[in-house]
Every structure is written in structure tokens, then in C-alpha cells.
Amino acid sequence: MYKNNIEEILDEIDLDTTPPLEEPMRQYYFLKKARKMVSEQSRKLGRPLCASVQTFGCQMNARDSEKLIGILHEIGYQQSESENADFVIYNTCTVRENANQRVYGRLGVLNNYKKKNPHMMIALCGCMMQEPEVVEKLKKSYRFVDLIFGTHNIYKFAELIVNRFESNHQIIDIWKDTNQIVEDLPSERKYAFKSGVNIMFGCNNFCSYCIVPYVRGRERSRNPKDIIREIEKLVADGVVEVMLLGQNVNSYGKNLDEPMTFAQLLREVEKIEGLERIRFMTSHPKDLSDELIEVMRDSKKICNHLHLPLQSGSSRILKIMNRKYTKEQYLELVEKIRAAVPDISITTDIIVGFPGETEEDFEETLDVVRKVRYDSAFTFIYSKRTGTPAAKMDNQVPEEVVKKRFDRLLAEVQQISKEQAKKVEGQVLPVLVEEINEQDPSLLTGRLTNNLLVHFKGEKELIGTIVDVHLKECKGFYYMGEICERQEGKELWHN
Ligand code: 5AD
Ligand code: SF4
User: Whose alpha carbon is nearest atom 18 of ligand 1?
Assistant: First the structure.
């Protein structure tokens, strides 16, 4: 739908004039200019050009990549899975050190492709590029990278591509922070029927281990009208599920000209006709309000799932982590949520081996895991991130100790998740059909509102719709089921 609008706007742009200064018109100008350059190169090569976008890290990055793909598509690149392409961009993550190492490793491979294909363009963006040491290293030892930009100016992608086409130098454009949010740029969804929607950018929490506030800048909320308009457009285009995205969605709206709460925003999103499911991520326990719990209890569309990062179960460690809640407060919050929404699925993030973590502290984490009984948990080994307060703490936990604790935690978490998954066995529940099963094409794969996957026989035309599925057998972390058709008040099982 938006596509026609963009075409109409581009038609009216005259590339012989100077680029406009205001956004998003400036970017439309560069979209048109880049399109011309791509088409010239394609003519010279006698074939269409292809581009590959590789995403590292979180849902936020996945959403940003959809914007990158949208722009690449608009300017004429075809999407390619292979990295042996005419344009390759890595949207990087830097939350943990090993993510950085992987990027350097893969750049070596790209360099080999480029030697055989000199017109190839290699671009890097995302959180890792916001670290000055990374950019220094790239400038010195990775001269073959054509384009480097960060998290704040992703909207300028088309303009940066034009800059690179017009010069022979490595282009580097990194901003420290921004308060600008540019709306109405193209983006291409990975799934036709579901989409992430940014509601805010950045983070103000400064958890002592975390690099995100340094690389994503201060909290900025999008205007609720822009969010609602985007979701309405998505729904008109076939989307039935949205994931509202922010580093800390519970503090949404605090810095708007007319402040509003996240719960109020959810009430507005709920009203959108045709939208069936609402998810959101991530909730910081310290900001999760009673008002939000009420909205979750009363909502017909908010999914039965809450991601509530714990990080540690030890109040002593939580204090040093600057998380601003204690073990007891976290457990009380979980109780309050479960009292309001009894069958809600709760998932979490846990870090093992934060500086100074003792066996007793670790036992406290295990205790919370046993008490909350998470439906699933992402467990991480603490990674020292230069520039964060925790990196300067001198009581780092020895690697062997961390490894052992990590294995113990994982075993506990997995056992509990398996037991939790079984909870709905035998029930008939709504499933959003997402895709044809990768292993067995006679099966479809879909998702329950609690985020568990279900595989069942069915026609691919059902993809993107919500169907009732009889959850016949729990296989650990997923279900095997059967579509359930209701006819004249009777229930029929499908073979
Ligand atoms: N080391 C390990 N895990 C980390 N996370 C954030 N920073 C670090 C770090 N330095 C984890 C947190 C967060 C998730 C996205 O990544 O658990 O919730
Ligand atoms: Fe990092 Fe804490 Fe912000 Fe999450 S809330 S992004 S862990 S600083």
C-alpha cells in the first residue's frame, strides 16, 4: 500500500535540483538517485544486482534490518541469501564480546569475495559500530569495508549509499546520539502477517554490565499517533500480530510532549480493528505498573506471554547491577501478575558470573528459577564490555567456576521449561500459522499465544491465519497437534 505512495513521491523528485534538507523528503531524493546508480551498474554488468542483509542480535536489530532491506529493495537490489553478493551489510550486535569476534571472522570471508568481485560493496552498521575502538580497528585493518554507520542514522542509508557510489573512499558516519525519529521510510517485512513495531529507542537504565545505553543512546518514544498509523497500515496490508519493541517498553511515553503510559498506548493499539495479537518486548521489572497488569488482564489481544528479565536472583548482585529491584520485589511482581493472568507464560534473561558473584548469590538465582518456574529462559555468561562500570570491577569470577554454574543453571531451566510446556497438553488453542515446516513440508508450523511452537498437518493457504489446534502431544519444547474444525456446533478432528 505504502509502495504506491513512495512511487508517486519519487516521480515528482527532480534530481537536477539540490537535495532537500528536511526529512524524509531528503531520503526520498537519495532513494531515487541511488536507484539510478544501481540501474546503471546493473546495465554494465548485464544482470540484476543482489544484496544480502545479515542480522546479529536482538529483535530491535531484526526490525532495523527490515528497514535496510526495504531501502535496498526500493533502489533496485534483489534479495540474496548468499553473501557472495553485490552488496552485503552486517547489522551488528555488541551486547556480548563473542558477537564482535564473529563479525571480524566473517569479514575475512567477505574480503575474499570482494577480491574476485571488485565492485562489491561491504557495509557495516548497528550497535558494534557505536564503539570508537571498533571503528578505529576497521579504519586501520579493514580498509575494504565501504560503508560504516551506526544505530542513530540508519534512516540515512540511501544517502550513504549514494555517497559511497560517488566517492572512492571508505565512508564513516557515526553519531553519538540523536533526538530525531524519521517516519515514513520504506521497510520490507520478513513475514506478511506479523511485524515488529518500534515504540521507543534507546535506554536510560545503565545496568552496570550493559553497553546498550552507550550504543543506542537515551530513551526516545515515538509519537503514539505515528505508532497507531503504522499499525493500521500494517493491518490493512495483512498483518494480524505486532510486537511492540523497545529496550524498556514500560517507560514508554515519559518524555513525550504529552506524556502517556505504556498501558495507555496498549489500550489504543487494542482498538485497532483487524489486529488479532499484540506482543511486546522488553519489560523492565522496576517499571512494570499495576495499570499494565490490569490492561493485560482485560485485553483480548495481548498474548499470554511476558518476557521479564531477572538477570540475577541475588539482591546483593542486583544492587551492583543497578537493576533497582530486589529478589523479593521481583517475586512479588510475578505473584501479582500470575494472580491477574493465571496461565501467563513468563520468560526471562539471566546472567551468570557477574563480577563478585558467589556460590550463595548463584543459589539465589536458582531459587528464583525454581519459584517462578519460567516457561523459558535465555541464559548468558557474563561478558566484560569495555566502557561499562562492571568492566572495571576487579573481582571477576574465574571462567571454570562460571562455566560450571552456567551448566547447572541451564539444566535446571531446561527441566522446568519442559514441565511448563506440558501444561496445555490436550487443550484446543488458537494458533497463528506461520510457515511450512522446515523438516517436513506436509506439516505447518504455528505459534500459540504463549509463544510455543506447534506442528500440524494443513494446507499452506492457512499461513497468516489463526486456527484452533488440538495440542495432542508435547515433545519437550514444542507440540504436535491437529487442526480442529468446528461444524454445526460439533468439533471434528482433522486427519
Ligand atoms: N554479559 C552477558 N549478558 C549480557 N546481557 C546484556 N549485557 C550483557 C553482558 N555484558 C544480556 C542481558 C540482557 C540480554 C539482552 O543480554 O541478560 O537482558
Ligand atoms: Fe541494558 Fe539494562 Fe537497558 Fe536492558 S535495561 S538495555 S539490560 S541497560
Answer: 349
Residue 486 pLDDT > 80: no
Spatial neighbors of 5 by CB under 8 A, at least 6 apart, are none
Ligand 2 centroid to Cα of residue 61, in Å, is 15
Task: For residue 30, give the nearest of 44, 13, 42 by alpha carbon.
Answer: 13
From the centroid of its chain, how far is CA 462? 25
Q: What is the pLDDT of residues 74-131, one digit of tens each?
A: 999 999 999 999 999 999 999 998 889 999 999 999 999 999 999 999 999 999 999 9
Helices (H), 142-198: 157-166
Q: Does residue 181 have a pLDDT over 90?
A: no
Distance 100 CA to ligand 1 centre (A): 14
pLDDT in tens, 381-411: 999 999 999 999 989 999 999 999 999 999 9
Ligand 1 proximity of 251 Cβ (cutoff 6 Å) = no
Least Cα distance to 245 among 373, 30, 67 occurs for 67
Please name which ligand lies nearest the alpha carbon of 214. 2
Query: Which H or E element spans position 361?
Result: helix 359-372
What are the start-end ranges of the E strands in 282-423?
305-307, 345-352, 376-381
For residue 127, give the nearest of 90, 82, 167, 86 by alpha carbon.
90
Q: Report yes or no: 442 and 433 within 8 Å, Cβ to Cβ.
A: no
Q: Global pTM? A: 0.92
Q: Which of 94, 96, 100, 248 to mutate to test the pocket of ligand 1 (most atoms within 8 A of CB)?
A: 96
- Number of the ligand closest to the Cα of 59: 1
Which of 98, 205, 209 to mutate for ligand 1's pocket (most ligand atoms within 8 Å of CB)? Answer: 209
- Which SS3 state, helix, strand or coil, does residue 480 take? strand
157 band by pLDDT with thresholds 50, 70 and 90: very high
Q: Say if ligand 1 is within 6 A of residue 209 CB.
A: yes
Measure the CA–CA gap between 199 and 222, rounded to whole angstroms.
5
